[in-house]
């Protein structure tokens, strides 16, 4: 099982961090969850029952055989139909990560069947978490779109969003690449996850520490631009004398007239417009009707707004029985 699949297993089965908010001026942090005894610190975990641990390898072998015999390169519609029917029998959440790993690159019919298994899992939010993971982290754009459509249909307006789904979205914002973080931010806005705002604030500028700087140092300038005219002239003339002969050894120099732009240091800050738009939309939806877009990409201003205005507003709504709960402190 790959590291990527282990991370998915950890998210679906409950090992994840809780979104926490730092004070103004500090980057939002995540409080680590307690690890089971004997776990390796920092390692992805798969939390399953002993019985499940005994059957997962067997189910993985069965799935690979099923793929080779009925799916994969098989083109006979009747044979593939048999394979899809057998595939839908694997509904135990412990096998969800293996389903993604084994069938992610299969045809659209197979991937749709895998996503349907996730969408039809109603016992808890493990199926929803698998859909969210696929929506954010899958390498295939079509697979991501299929998963997102099912996730949106299942978690419609006013639906309860489980903790596992929230953890997947938080992981996408914190650790995802550009398109992953953007998708996670859009899901946070779609499902009105106001506790994600402290994560979106630094993410809109490329994440904490996204400003990159470099300098010339002892190596001189990073670059320079010259706009001018160069003229050659004789700056020195040395006579050379020999028997019955006289010569001169000239020294030629160049005079430059014009403008020189020297670049000795540079700093680059990334502004992720798509995440910023999701942040503004989410913040406006949960505030008191005022617009947060004037905050722009000013991270300290966003942090002060969250701590001094938005968070007290949400806590007041919670006390008065208004819609939504207060953000995680």
Structure description:
This protein is of the alpha+beta class and 329 residues long. Among the domains are: 3-175, no CATH class; 212-267, no CATH class. The chain is 48% helix and 16% strand. It has twelve helices and six strands. The strands form three sheets. A two-stranded antiparallel ribbon has the order 1-2. Strands 3-6 form a two-stranded antiparallel sheet. Helix 1 runs antiparallel to helix 4, helix 2 runs parallel beside helix 4 (96-103) and helix 5 runs parallel beside helix 7 (141-154). The model is unreliable at 15-54 (pLDDT under 50).
Topology:
Layout: H1 3-12, E1 18-19, E2 30-31, H2 50-70, H3 77-87, H4 96-103, H5 108-120, H6 126-137, H7 141-154, H8 163-175, H9 178-190, H10 197-203, E3 212-215, E4 223-242, E5 245-263, E6 265-268, H11 273-286, H12 299-319
Antiparallel strand pairs: 1-2, 3-6, 4-5
Helix pairs in contact: 1-4, 2-3, 2-4, 4-5, 5-6, 5-7, 6-7, 6-8, 8-9, 9-11, 10-11, 10-12
Major sheet details: 2 strands, antiparallel
The overall pLDDT, averaged over residues, is 81
Number of strands: 6
- The neighbouring-strand order within the major sheet is 1-2
Indicate the proportion of strand residues: 15-25%
- Fraction of residues in H or I helices: 40-55%
Tell me, briefly, the overall form: elongated
Order of helices and strands: HEEHHHHHHHHHEEEEHH
- SSE class: alpha+beta
Which regions are unreliable across 5 or more consecutive residues at pLDDT < 50?
Answer: 15-54
Radius of gyration computed on alpha carbons: 30 Å
In angstroms, what separates the terminal alpha carbons?
36 Å
Please work out how many helical segments DSSP would assign: 12
């Amino acid at each position: 099982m790959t590291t990527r699949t282990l991370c998915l297993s950890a998210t679906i089965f409950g090992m994840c961090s809780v979104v926490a908010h730092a004070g103004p001026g500090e980057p939002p942090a995540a409080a680590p969850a307690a690890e089971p005894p004997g776990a390796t610190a920092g390692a992805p975990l798969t939390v399953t029952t002993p019985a499940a641990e005994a059957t997962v390898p067997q189910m993985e072998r069965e799935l690979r055989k099923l793929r080779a015999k009925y799916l994969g390169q098989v083109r006979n519609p009747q044979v593939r139909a048999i394979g899809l029917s057998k595939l839908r029998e694997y509904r135990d959440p412990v096998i969800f990560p293996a389903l993604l790993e084994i069938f992610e690159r299969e045809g659209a019919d197979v991937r749709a069947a895998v996503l349907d298994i996730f969408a039809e899992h109603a016992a808890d939010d493990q199926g929803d978490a698998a859909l969210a993971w696929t929506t954010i982290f899958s390498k295939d754009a079509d697979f991501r779109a299929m998963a997102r459509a099912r996730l949106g249909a299942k978690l419609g307006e006013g639906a309860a969003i489980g903790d596992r789904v929230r953890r997947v979205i938080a992981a996408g914002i914190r650790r995802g690449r550009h398109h992953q973080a953007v998708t996670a931010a859009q899901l946070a806005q779609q499902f009105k996850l106001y506790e994600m705002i402290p994560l979106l604030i630094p993410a809109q500028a490329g994440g904490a520490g996204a400003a990159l700087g470099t300098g010339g140092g002892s190596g001189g300038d990073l670059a320079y631009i010259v706009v001018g005219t160069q003229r050659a002239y004789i700056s020195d003339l040395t006579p050379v004398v020999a028997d019955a002969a006289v010569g001169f050894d000239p020294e030629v120099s160049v005079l430059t007239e014009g403008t020189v732009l020297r670049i000795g240091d540079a700093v680059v800050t990334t502004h992720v417009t798509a995440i910023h738009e999701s942040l503004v939309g989410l913040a406006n939806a949960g505030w008191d009707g005022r617009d947060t877009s004037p905050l722009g990409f000013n991270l300290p201003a966003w942090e002060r707004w969250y701590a001094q205005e938005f968070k007290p507003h949400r806590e007041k709504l919670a006390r008065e029985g208004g819609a939504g709960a207060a953000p995680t402190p």
